[in-house]
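Researcher: Re-running this chain for the archive, since the previous output was lost when a drive failed. Same request as before.
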Amino acid sequence: MKRVTGIGGIFFKAQDPKALAAWYQKHLGIDVQPWGGASFRWNGPDNPQGAGSTVWSPFAADTAYFAPSTAPFMVNYRVADLHALLAALRAEGVQVQDKVDESEYGKFGWVIDPEGNKVELWEPPEGQ
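Model: Regenerated structure tokens:
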């Protein structure tokens, strides 16, 4: 079974996410969108038409989205089959969060690594 197939996103806490995003836009040319982050498009063997993306997004310093982790960041990994991977990880004794979100943006699940970092696993929608 394929597990991680790439990085889906980099999320990090910022004291002032809007100001920090504006700095990255001005100085590094990151195309920050109205929702506050950017999406880098790319292609690869699994998506030769270039339908893949990696998200970059600052979050408010007090966000609870990374909880229970206290780390100032969270990495989102692309996966091929979220439900199968979560089942395999549970069987291997990995701390898997009970919640799974499914929407038009894909399927999302979370695990906690041995150092307490929350890791987001994302199965993109078909064709992405």
